[in-house]
Amino acid sequence: MSPRQLLGVHLPSVVGRARADRGPLVLAGTVVALGTVLAAALPPAVSRAADSAVSDVVARAGTAADLVLTAPFPPDAPGDPKQRDPDSSTSVQSTVYQARAALPADLAAALQPPLASVTSVDLPVSGTVPGRVLQLAYVTGGSGARVTWTAGRAPGASTARPTQLVQPDSGPWPVQVGLSEQAAAALGVGPGDRVPARDPQKQDLDIRVSGIYRPVDPTDRAWQSAPDLLRPQEFVGQQVTRTAIGALLSADSLADARIALDADYLVRAVSFSPSPSRLDRGNAKVLAGVVVRVEASSGAAVEGDPTWRSSLDAVLRDARRRVATATAQAEVLLVGLVTTTALALLLAAEQLVRRRAAALGDVRVRGAGLPGLGGELLAESLLVTALGGAAGLLAAYAVGPHPSLTWPLPLLGVAALAPPALGVLAAARATGGRRSPANRSARRTVARTAALRRAALEGGVLLAALGALVALHQRGVVPSDPDSGTAVLLPALAPTLAAATAALVLLRLLPLAARLVVARLRRGRRSTAYLVAARTATTVARPLPFLVVTVSSALAALALCLSATQSTGQADGAWRSVGADAVLHTEPGPQVAALARRAAGTEGVRLAVPARVADVSLVGRVSTGSARLVVVDAAAFQRLLATTPLTDAPQLARLRAPGQGGVPALLRTSDPALLRGTLALPWGDGRVPLRVVGGAPPLGDGGPLVVVDAAAFAAAGADAPPDTVWATGPAAGRVLRALAGADGAVTVRTTLLHERQTSPLPLALLRLARLTALAMLLLALLALVLGSAASARERGDTLARLRTLGLRSREARRMVAGELLPPLALGALGGLALGVVLARAAPGPYALHLLTAQPQDPAPVVPWTTAAPLLVVVVGVAGVVAVESSLRRRQRLGQVLRVGAQ
Fold first, then answer.
1. Same domain for 418 and 381?
2. 3-state SS of the chain: helix, strand, coil percent to 5?
3. Is the pTM of this model over 0.70?
4. Which helix (H) or strand (E) holds 206?
5. Are residues 24 and 113 in the same domain?
6. Is the distance from CB of 242 to CB of 133 less than 8 angstroms?
7. Which domain holds residue 616?
8. 10-42 per-position pLDDT tens digit
9. What Gene Ontology terms describe where this protein resides (cellular component) (predicted)?
10. CA dist., res. 150 & res. 154, Å (int)
């Protein structure tokens, strides 16, 4: 036979074989298409969510992510006269040009147009409420900070001579300013009045109100540099409350402000806000490094010792850390999905070859060469794989642009190579395969060799699984370098390899258990059960169906547990962040307690508790630190916590117990030195001694926290009027908003939870986990159907013969269920248990707290839906039993007897 004949592909044979087995080929193509669309569409979807997450984190950071250049004015010479500079606003614009030119091109492309401002230091306002300060501000940029003058006019120059020379002993220089309607109402002034302000050296200033304005667009970016120009801003500290009132300067009055105030009291700044839409995972690392270099270059951009400052690099690092965490978790699910789909394709190829084994043997007997037969099978397989892969890629492209071409490669490789390889092997065994030797010792040697090969394969899988699990628990799925993709490969394989190892272990135990059951039933009288056990002992050795069911069940359970843990963790994180259904933060005072009483008496509010919340310093015997202080009625706060899912805090009762040594306090801190000896809290003009009597309840972001009883704190001589109200009930948020009006900020727990749940990364991971679980259940069902089809013919012949001996239909159905259900149910249960074990170890290695916004990793949650794999197996076996029973009823006993005789 010539090489051409040996390697030739007989096209009619390919077409005829494909036509005869069109059902299995269509099934294989469908699995290839579904696996391809998932493997091609899901990674880009995760990448798009990661890019959106970077933009979302930067957008939520607000002005904290701005890049700000602070350029002081040239200092004034002491005792020298000052010359009025009418081009002061032009110098500000010049600073903007120089700052923009100093930025690297890649960083400038990711920033919005700059905002420029000149603001004064806090100027105390005398004769009014203590704590009020005035801040002069000139802003430019955005849409120009446009205003409508409701009274008076815009500030103008205070002199007709633009470049007047002013002597230092000429008295306060007048400065015209504009006030917002809220600021004018707070100060009780109008056009033509003066604001009694002083400079930091307590020298009187001549601040004249030229007009009252209303902003045209309060959301204009220009107001970001000085938000107190819109309305007075309240800042609550541990001792005092500071109210900042903005006074608007014009280009003309800016020159007067430079005369009235020393250069040290004016701050010239240029602010660049990042454009969230221009930031993604690809440029986050580069831009973070550029920001650090820009900050290090302070003093080299413009004259006057300028300084660059920004937290954008920290914001981008946090975003990259979250993205790396989510991407690593997604890779865990994607690796399991691709691996299980490849096993299902291998099972489909095995079933196809089993179906056509006799035909392949006949072709081989008639003289077909193995290379030629392999070429025919490869051509058929490539055609099916190409059609299925093309359909999957088209569907993936329809779902989203730029589908992945890397993740589907393992699936396409298995789909293209497994059928011809198994077919050639089956044809070779049918005609010239290895014969069983007659010598007993030789047969033992062959069996021992096969056992050693299987043990080596299983040992390799076991070692790989152990290595992956060790890497998972030592390093977690999140790499030390968020931009390194290779570091997460081995930990990402851990769940899949662990599930495969568990399946191999169970496969070792199943034949032993089946033989024990057969041996036990052989001595009994239950012939039907004995026949079922005997059939199970012969079919349980098929590894692929059991392997697919076990691995898919484990990964489905893991995905369901991860999604439930994430959802529950987000809910718990929202409760911790808010502390109730809604919380109000406002200016401290006795009116807050009255507001809480009114809220508690409103329908839809169960409890409303006032408290004072402030950031304070703690002074210990050997250490100092900072903490969040909560001054609250301990009994009321305990009742409030009892109405929430937060952990109850019975230690709150200790705060009201009398004792010596200071005010009883509950403390949460990571510094054990603070717990040694006495502890003092600076408050007002003195210190309040504290006596730690227990741990603080789970509240806030997990940082240091001190909780004291309001009555005990007041008895120690500390005045702490409340500034916070916690409220529970379905209408808590609406009631607090209505009672507080514009005087406070209300945070509603459900709103916060919705924002976190709809964030790009958590939402994408939740959808991916649920989709992975659904795909795993479908693969388990497919493995069940293909595995039962592999033994359907032999099982049908056995039951047909038993029917001639009087076997009833009900008993036949029980025999089919008894043969199929136990091994598959054991695989599903084993996989389910392993998935739950992996999920219980998941919060730490998978760093779930970065996605749930909790201070520590959430407690693992096992939902009832993890029983879905077992339910799928039971329902699938019931369906197979019904189908086979229907097919058997169509057979006549006479036909069965004739077939049996043949």
1. yes
2. 60, 15, 25
3. yes
4. strand 206-215
5. no
6. yes
7. 587-743
8. 677 777 777 777 778 888 888 899 989 998 988
9. plasma membrane
10. 10
